[in-house]
Amino acid sequence: MLPANRSAKRCLPAPLSLAVASVLFAIAAPAFAQDKAEKEKDKTTELSRIEVTGSNIRRTDVETASPVQVISKQDVENMGARTLLQVLDNLPAARPGQVDSKSLFTGSDGASQANLRGLGAQGTLVLLNGRRLSYYGAPAGFQTQFVNIDAIPAAVIERMEVLTDGASAVYGTDAVAGVINVITKSSYQGLEVSGTWDTASRFDSFGEKQASVTGGFGDMAEDGYNVYASVNLYERDGIPDSEWYLKNPGQFYVNNPDYIKNLRLDTGSAPGVFNPGYYYAIDPVTGARRDEAAPGCNNVLQVSSGTRCIWQTWMNRQINGGADSKRVTAYVNGHYQLNDSTEAFAEVTYTDIDLHANGGTPRAYGTTTGNPQSWFSRNTGNTVNQFLTPWLGPNNEYNHASPELKAMMGGVVGLGYLLQDVGGGHFGQRNTDDSYRVVAGLRGAAGDWNWETAFATAGSHSVTYQTTNVNLKGFEKAFGPYTIDPGTGRVIISDHPAYKFGEISEANAALIREAFPTFDIESWTRLHTLDGKIEGPLFNMPAGEVRAAFGFNATRETFYTPGNPDAANGLITQQGGSWFDGKRNTYALFAEAVAPLTDKLEMDLALRLDKYPGFSANAAPKIGLKYQALPQLMLRGTYSEGFRAPSLAEAGSGGVYAQIGGYRDEVRCAETNAIAGLLRQSNRGVDQDLGNSLWNSDCSRNVARMTQPNQDLKPEKAKIATLGFVLEPTDWLSVSADYWFVYRRDEIVAPDYSKEEDIDSMTRFPITESDKSNLAALAAMCSDPASGVTCPGTLPGYSIGNVASVIGQYSNRGRTLIDGFDVDLRSRFDLGEWGRLNIGVAATIANRNMYNSDNGDGWYYGNLVGYYNNPKVRATFNTNWTYGKWDTGFYVNYVGGTKWAYDRIDAQDNNAETCTGSYLDLAPGHCGGAPAWWTANLSVNWRPIEKLSVGVTVKNLFNRLPFYDPNDWMNFAGYANNFGRIYSVTATYKF
Length: 991
Prior knowledge:
By secondary structure, the protein is mainly beta. Among the domains are: 240-322 and 368-427 and 467-519, no CATH class; 665-712 and 750-809, no CATH class.
């Protein structure tokens, strides 16, 4: 019987778990009444026992009470997957997780995550050969610590076992949604070389290359040892804006009519060509802004406020399209037979990851008239740091504004100027990560009992290098010393700054490198583990042998992020020197037993005690029942309790000092959009341009944010259950179906800064000169009949300034309840001289996904299934035909449609009637929601000789291009493919 597979999210209260057990025991009751004579069956030859993910007990049957899905190497090839992340993206039980190439500026830059059931990386345990790996150095959102699945050696993966059931009773913290156990080859002899190359015709810059060398020697049976090693090289090319900017879904350009025009590709000065910039001033009476192209400008643009000298946007920016990535993974595995009953084993894994994304266009000097940049920093406490780019004084040697413009502000003017001196390669981001794991241990047998003990040490060193923000001291060195204008109080740069406007030089470049330096954020994690277990028969029952396992686990965990010193002192704009320092020792004892209650009914019991500092020992129990109702039908069910201990990022020392992106202030959003809405109705192009630039500009802003750890956090708790069957009506067909649920409570969450009760303190900016200028432009339009706009008697305006800062703390708050069904169908056909044919269908059908962000009664957001990012159905279809030297696979991945709204509350504003999602217009025909999405892969593998294998895979065979998704920052759904059809060639040779 083949195992089933799963995916989704859900949970049930305790009464349901009792019902599960009651049903199974009711089924089993008649079996207890069997004649003892029937139980005394002839004993068959003992089969070799194996250990299955989710249990410490070796068994002869891979089917357990818990549903486990096995993904073989052949399955991976059929998917066209090249990385572990790509494998998980094709599993119905998994949900889209963080992708390394699109992770920039998330806090956990350069890493990928696993996400079972949609409960997040913090609810999914990732193992390598049954043991933990160290967390990635940088937590997601500076909160969630997780395993970077990119660091797992892909070349030596033999299979993956995905346990879609809670496993805290066996593995401890994090195993709430399930476990992903990556299993490598147990031994290898010989030498194998393999290479893969992927390319896409729609994107010339797209490229994925992978090469590996695996070699080993020694035969355990004959020589008493085996050692093998593998080196895997992976490289992915970045996608610049020059490839991407015209390939967004069509509706994106409808919603952003000025997007192409604002790139100034046909009208602005080209990169490297001097641009004198433009000046501006604010009318002290009306608040109107006046712009004026600097003398010598060859690229004058008329705007609502006058004229500007414009430049082209450089198109080598890679932040959106995807970053370059290079990975080197080395893996060594060794086994040595010490004597007839004892074996020594060891593993070494090392991964080096280097990811880089070009930041594109050089920065511009732009005197601030709107909100200043604001951020918290570690050493400045609750004081909000702010930075405004200074003005030019009346005697500045580079102030060549007209007398009329100078007169508006007593000679003081603002400046817009492109700082081209360092070129287009200086700005951007780079992430490096070096991770390792070393395991050494002994295993053996003592009589009928098997034992194993090992020590493992693992760690990760992650560094983020960013070149994007201002260093206040470096900026002042280039443009200072500053003075204060006595009339206006504005900050004024030096009349003779070190930076020389009007020329492009190496001296200027050196100053810009100090003003916009590369700063680093380093993080270290360490995990030292000593474990041991013993497993074997306890006693015999009438129906058979009772086996048990007992063990311990002791760990030392550390996490350290010192923070950048300049950022900690508030010198790096929008970066506050976030830092963490935590360490703890944890201990665990566990026991597990499998008892054949009858010839047909087997019971699994497990209990684990984990002791973390700061709260009482956590007891995680699990019970499972497996009933062979018929030779072709097995019934199974489990009930368990899971937990997640607070991470050191959440409960240690330190905190997040920087910004929060995407902050939505409903008041400012509505007021700015009211102004923009009138301007967009104007017949005058300059009013339309201003209205388009203002539209939604105050609906998603960067706000200074301080999130503090909470050392009083409790662990998250969960109740998990499954109930299902495996049916094999014939020898060529296997069908399994499992109902699953998860109820997670006391969730550890960061403050929801959109809710007043989560904010410990908040500050706002005053209404800015830029705000006043917008109001003046609106008034001017409404007073001009040529605009064609009928304005209301009272024009819209601003009642408050934008939010400047928010402060909050992690807390135990909220709960989630998810449930659904997993269905798996596998068929195998022997076609005789025509080979073998395998067909499989797997699906996850979500039933409920309910969430409450506080500890109140009920489910505030209702059932989220069918709403955005929570489809009812995820499914895969695959078929594999083996004929002679040919192996052909066809794989289809399906994601069901959803509404655009995130929940029933959001649906009041974003629905089919408004034809909006995230308050943005939708493409015609898509008002009802995100359509269902599917893609197909076709693979053909040929083995002309025994040692050589050549394969071709076409991913996204039908060249399907994604629909516009207003909720996703990429403008299309994360599970969709914007690269079109991808071609892949693989060759493997065994010496």
